[in-house]
Automatic annotation (TrEMBL):
Name of the protein: RNA polymerase II-associated protein 1
Pfam families reported for this sequence: RPAP1_C, RPAP1_N, TPR_RPAP1
Residue ranges of domain RPAP1 N-terminal in the record: 192-233
An example Gene Ontology biological process: transcription by RNA polymerase II
């Protein structure tokens, strides 16, 4: 039995024992290592490279260091044999699997040290064991080429790529030549002769010449052949090693002496340069490691601000802050480490990522916590100005989710907590849920209000913060409501019903115990968030009593400062209006009925008075009229029998139409006075239009609801409408004041706003923002004035959109009640010259305004919607303008406008009256034009059926099928039924059905720009989910749906190019290509195939072809290339050579697009070249697009020439591709000027010439090609005799090829 090392033995004794072990052959090794480890003892595990230990039992999978993994990557011959490919041990097999793994986990593992868990914890090794493992057995005199009899291990050979070295000195055997092709009798002699000639040639050459020739050979030799030669050289080197190898003892002694000499040399050379003098007393430190001792020196100073430059990696401290490049931080702060740029403090993101996989618990913990703080500060926007690229996308692409998932799997609680902290920072939006309205902060707000009693400004700030948060979402408002004691404290202190304030003239410093308008606004905003919240607030905090207390007295009797009292009443009315929208707090109407009657009697007086003291009354009057309009909807709502049978004490079911009929008389009289003044004096006085807008909306709602009530005297009602129109509405529409208001539409339009640089957001992007920026104008002395300007024109003073929208509403209401008023009232509005001019301008705007999706642009959208509804009753002079307006409006309407979208689809979009181009007269004239312009299509389908349809016939079919097309679109949008219902309830004012008054934050529209293709995408997705591509044919419903989409898209391409042009040509083509892959034979159906052919003609026009860019991002797709691959797969499988399908396949193959698309056909799908049989005369795309610019991709040129040589492309079955290949190969061979200046292109050109000359019998068209000509049979015009310069080029390459063959 072999002896084991004993304490006190030195290195020589250990090496001697090791040599004895090697000489014994390791026969007893198995019995020594099969024992299970004793948990009570620890032993050193020494892994000697080249000396493997056999084990009959299972071994622990020892974690390898990063350096060890790099060594294994650098020496792949240690993993598996090159010839057989069979791994020699299970460890070699696992190592080979790791080396071949290219997944994300493998990439992260290769740069990060995994953590040691309890289950796989390795024993700590001694310094000697670590040194043996890191430096290898050769450092201790062990021959690594020695192997045990029980194992086979590949030998380590010298680098075969060294140009002027041999595996062993004196070797005269060639490692490349094996005698293949030589005579059998003199094979050995000829090999030696050739080898000696090669050696002599190499000896006579300089090192630079050898390297140059070697590089030339490496460029010319096939990489696979080069690998083969290297493997042969490795095998010869092994044979020579075995033939000339020394004995084990000689190798051991030689290596030992060599290491001793190197050790002495290091000591003599480096000792004087070391930071400190080594001592012999240091245990196991006799081997100097100068690179590690360098860390004992002082750090160099950080770079100065002038030398810092740009592009350095950002470094963060433990709080997530970016450290400046030139900052000087003491080393005791723990921010310096042994990485790159040791003089700079902090950690880069890459270093933080690596530390999260450290085996040290503290390092992992602080790395996760630091990462969490970096993410939090990045999301708050604090780091955006300090880094060049966004941090969050960078760490997401770097695999942060995988790192966090690994952290959650850690066994240490501290690491898991830190990983959760980082994951929380990444996934949980701090500004949405945790900035202020987290429960602890809400409780803190309550504590501040209860215990600290701050002054008025602080209280108002807290209330405004809560209001801003409540506007964000219903969930946020509900959390504020449920915060214990918060709303109770606010209502008790700041919305009291009894208070006493001695001094009402000056500012109030303490607002406790007195009403605060901001607190009332908070309740109003919370009520807007949903019916449930409004019901809780109304019942729990007795909102009805609060409203009665604040609104039952005059402003002067509130015992508050005048401005505060006025604001309090306005906010109380706004809160009442919000509650009334749900049918709540309606009994307050009866309690304040006498006061309301008194207020209505003073409306006309307040309007006529122009003093500034009346401005507060006008705000009050405006909000009062709005409240009364809501009462109309409560009283006029139709109730079902089930609702009437429910015995509930709710005034929603007790209020009826008779309770509000008395309101019409005073409001009608006041409206007549107001509208008369606007028509006559608006040019001089420029009255504020808010109160007139409220009055007109009240009248519109009244006339609309009155027609739905039972028991109404229709005759008297219609006479009243006629009298109102004659005495008030008609004079207004004819007045100069009204005309002046209409003229300002374009000036105050958000859609026509001039392009300007967007201002930076005043709040972080995570918070909801409406995109409004106000600037305060100052006077000459620099003091603030009361004049504010806004970036949105529609919010400017005297904006006409609200007023004109109300006028359109009123005109529609009276026209629906009294049909005789249609021409009298609607026609002046529909035919108004300035309104039509404004509509044309919005259609002609090529680029969408930056405010097109703003929440405030909704007022402009409503005006266009009501104008379109008027056009339904009275057609305007140019109905195409109205149709274009409706198409643009569809892509702008936002969330909450689902009812408007549904109504536009139902009544406007597919209404024949709005598509004047489809009338019989226009279609007849277009049909006559098609006879002279050759507008008909002549193609053959896959069944050889003649496709001969004209544009006019296709458009006629679309015009006659508009009702069917509308039905299919409504069916496709059937999933929006609930949203449409909620939106309809809000717009029609049904209090019992209204669920919320909250609109989503602006910034995105409800319908995408390419909404016309949504039914087609729905069919495509349904097909993919059901795996219908390889199964059954498309259903009749799918065929009808796809046909309708193609019909409508074709009609828009012809009739509305400007509107459909807002969707990029690439996106439109991508959507249409889905029709080919949405079913096996869907594209072969007659209506589908015909309209695909019609769309093909539109996409083949140069106007559209120039706008195609297949590198742009397509919504819903990773890239166009992936979609094109799917289209090609489908074409190969089920196209049957269909001409329409083939022409769509050819569209991306034009020369102006990326060569990747052309390689997908020429390289990956060579068989498909035979199926593109479209004759040249049937190709709608200009042939010049496939020939210019000339091909410059060498790989693609090689593929095209190979297709010509192999016969994959022939003029009989693929005329276009044959022409393309001949043209580009010919131009590259004869006319490529870049080949003279670029070595690589010259080499490619030589290879192509060699291939052409080797197949001269097949290359006549390539050599004699002159230009393309559709009049020729093949589309090719050939030279009868080559021009002199081309002939000279051809002769040169022919002679060069012959010379090369003769030399060989």
């Amino acid at each position: 039995m072999n002896e084991r090392p004993k304490p006190g033995e030195d290195e020589d004794d250990l090496l001697k024992l090791q040599q004895q072990f090697l000489n014994s052959g390791g026969s007893q090794m198995s019995s020594a290592s099969i024992k299970r480890p004793d948990k009570r003892k620890t032993r050193d595990v020494v892994n000697m490279e080249g000396v493997q230990v056999e084990s009959g039992g299972s071994q622990h999978n020892v974690k390898k260091s990063k350096f060890k993994q790099e060594q294994e990557v650098a020496s792949p011959s240690r993993v598996c044999r090159a010839k057989s490919g069979d791994c020699e041990t299970m460890e070699d097999f696992e190592r080979a699997m790791d080396n071949k793994d290219s997944s994300v986990a493998a990439v992260l593992t290769s740069i990060i040290v995994p953590s040691n868990t309890k289950g796989g914890k390795t024993k700590k090794k001694s310094l000697f064991a670590q040194q043996v493992e890191s430096q290898g057995p050769e450092h201790f005199g062990v021959d690594s080429s020695h192997r045990m009899p029980a194992f086979r291990q590949p030998d380590k050979v010298m680098d075969s790529e060294t140009p002027n070295c041999q595996p062993f000195p004196g070797n005269s055997v060639s490692s490349v030549l094996d005698g293949s092709g030589l005579s059998v009798s003199n094979k050995k002699a000829e090999i030696e002769q050739i080898h000696q000639e090669n050696v002599e040639k190499l000896t006579s050459m300089s090192e630079e010449e050898i390297l140059d020739e070697q590089q030339k050979l490496l460029d010319l030799i096939d990489p696979k052949l080069l690998d083969f030669i290297k493997k042969k050289r490795t095998a010869v080197a092994r044979t020579n090693m075995e033939a000339h190898g020394t004995s084990k003892s000689e190798s051991f002694s030689f290596m030992r002496e060599k290491k001793k000499k190197e050790k002495k040399l290091n000591e003599t050379v480096l000792e004087s340069e070391l930071p400190l003098k080594p001592s012999k007393k240091w245990v196991h430190m006799d081997t100097l490691e100068p690179e590690k001792l360098e860390w004992i020196k002082d750090l160099p100073p950080p770079p100065s601000a002038d030398d810092a430059g740009t592009g350095r990696p950002a470094r963060f401290d433990f709080e997530g802050n970016v450290l400046a490049v030139d900052i000087d931080i003491p080393v005791n702060m723990g921010l310096h480490h042994h990485g790159e740029e040791p003089e700079r403090a902090g950690y880069t993101l890459e270093e933080i990522f690596q530390l999260t996989r450290s085996s040290n618990l503290q390092q992992k913990t602080f790395a996760f916590h630091t990462l969490a703080k970096v993410i939090s500060k990045a999301k708050s926007g604090k780091l955006s100005e300090k880094v060049q690229s966004p941090i969050i996308p960078t760490i997401l692409s770097g695999g942060v989710l995988m790192l966090l998932r690994w952290g959650l799997d850690d066994s240490a609680v501290a690491v898991v907590a830190a990983a959760v902290d980082a994951l929380h920072a990444l996934l949980w939006n701090p500004l949405d849920e945790a900035l202020v309205h987290r429960m602890d902060l809400l409780m803190r707000f309550r504590y501040i209000m209860e215990s600290m009693h701050p002054q008025a400004n602080t209280v108002i700030s807290l209330l405004e913060i809560l209001t801003r948060l409540a506007e964000h979402s219903s969930a946020t408002a509900y959390k504020i409501l449920k915060c214990p004691g918060l709303i109770d404290k606010i209502v008790k202190e700041f919305i009291p019903t009894a208070w006493s304030l001695k001094e009402t003239t000056g500012p109030v410093s303490n607002v406790y115990g007195i009403p605060v308008p901001t607190a009332v606004k908070l309740l109003r905003v919370m009520c807007q968030c949903g019916r449930n919240i409004a019901s809780i607030l109304t019942s729990k905090y007795n909102i009805k009593l609060v409203l009665l207390r604040y609104l039952s007295v005059e402003i002067s009797d509130l015992h508050l400062p005048l401005k505060e009292a006025s604001n309090l009443q306005v906010e109380a009315l706004a809160l009442w209006r919000t509650c009334a929208s749900y049918g709540l707090a309606t009994e307050t109407y009866f309690d304040l009925y006498s006061n309301i009657t008194m207020y209505l009697g003073q409306l006309e007086k307040h309007w006529s008075t122009s003093s500034s003291s009346i401005s507060g009354h006008r705000h009050f009057d405006t909000h009062l009229v709005c409240v009364l309009e809501k009462m109309l909807y409560v009283a006029g709502e139709k109730r079902s029998k089930s609702d009437e049978s429910n015995a509930r004490e709710d005034f929603l079911y007790e209020m009826n139409w008779s309770h509000v009929t008395s309101l019409i008389r005073p409001l009608l009289a006041c409206s007549q006075k107001v509208l008369s003044d606007i028509g006559g004096t608006y040019p001089q006085q420029r009255q504020d239009l808010h109160f007139p807008t409220a009055g007109i909306n009240f009248l519109a709602s009244f006339y609309n609801l009155e027609g739905q009530q039972s028991g109404v005297d229709e005759v008297a009602s219609l006479e009243g409408i006629e009298q109102f129109c004659s005495s008030c509405l008609d004079p207004l529409l004819d007045s100069y004041g009204f005309q002046l208001i209409v003229e300002k539409l374009s000036t105050f339009s958000n859609l026509l706003a001039a392009k300007e640089d967007k201002k930076e957001a005043l709040v972080p992007h995570c918070l909801p923002s409406y995109g409004v920026f106000l600037s305060i104008e100052t006077n000459g002395s620099g003091q603030r004035s009361e004049t504010y300007t806004t970036n949105m024109p529609i919010l400017s003073q005297h904006s006409p959109f609200g007023f004109l929208t109300a006028v359109l509403r009123l005109a529609l209401s009276v026209s629906k009640r009294h049909k005789a008023m249609i021409l009298k009232v609607l026609k002046p509005l529909v035919m108004n010259r300035d309104i039509l001019l404004y509509m044309k301008k919005t259609c002609a705007a090529l680029n969408r305004s930056q405010y097109s999706t703003s929440l405030f642009t909704r007022a402009e959208n409503l005006l266009q919607y009501f104008w379109l509804k008027c056009c339904v009753l009275v057609p305007c002079d140019d109905m195409s303008i109205a149709h274009r307006v409706s198409l643009n409006l569809m892509s702008r309407l936002g969330h909450g406008d689902e009812h408007l979208i549904h109504d536009l689809i139902t009544t406007v979009i597919f209404n024949q009256a709005f598509i004047c181009e489809g009338s019989s007269d226009n279609l007849t004239s277009e049909a006559m034009a098609s006879l002279t312009l050759s507008d008909s299509l002549h193609l053959k389908s896959a069944t050889q059926e003649e496709i001969s349809v004209s544009k006019s016939s296709l458009l006629q079919d679309v015009y006659n099928s508009l009702a069917k097309i509308r039905g299919h679109y409504l069916m496709a949008f059937g999933g929006m039924e609930r949203a449409v219902s909620n939106s309809r309830n809000f717009f029609t004012g049904k209090p019992s059905e209204t669920q919320s008054l909250l609109f989503k934050c602006a910034g995105e529209s409800l319908m995408p720009k390419d909404w016309i293709y949504m039914p087609l995408i729905h069919v495509y997705n349904k097909t993919i989910q059901s795996q219908n591509v390889s199964g059954l044919s498309a259903s009749p419903q799918s065929i009808a749906m796809v046909s309708s989409v193609l019909q409508w898209s074709f009609a828009l391409e012809v009739w509305r190019p400007g509107e459909i042009g807002q969707v990029s040509a690439t996106v439109r083509l991508s959507r249409i290509l889905c029709a080919f892959i949405a079913g096996n034979d869907l594209f072969l159906e007659r209506p589908v195939n015909h309209y695909l052919a019609g769309l093909l003609r539109e996409f083949s026009t140069q106007r559209v072809l120039d706008r195609l860019s297949f590198e742009e991002k397509i919504p819903g797709m990773t890239s166009f290339y992936d979609l094109y691959q799917e289209v090609l797969d489908h074409y190969e499988a089920v196209s049957f050579g269909d001409a329409v399908f083939g022409l769509f396949v050819l569209l991306p193959l034009q020369q102006r697009h990326t060569s990747m698309l052309r390689k997908a056909v020429w390289g990956e799908r060579r068989k498909m070249l035979r199926t593109l049989r479209i004759p040249l005369e049937e190709i709608l795309i200009p042939l010049q697009n496939f020939l210019e610019p000339e091909e410059s991709d060498p790989e693609l040129l090689h593929l095209q020439l190979s297709a010509l040589v192999s016969g994959a492309v022939q003029p009989m079955w693929s005329p276009l591709l044959y022409l393309v290949a001949v043209h580009h190969v010919n131009r590259f061979l004869f006319l490529d000027p870049m080949a003279e200046h670029q070595t690589e292109r010259a080499k490619v050109k030589e290879r192509l010439w060699a291939q052409v000359i080797a197949n001269m019998d097949k290359m006549a068209d390539v050599i004699f090609y002159k230009q393309f000509s559709t009049s020729q049979p093949k589309g090719i015009d050939l030279y009868d005799c080559l021009p002199p310069n081309r002939q000279a080029t051809l002769d040169y390459h022919i002679s060069k090829t012959k010379h090369a063959h003769s030399t060989c």
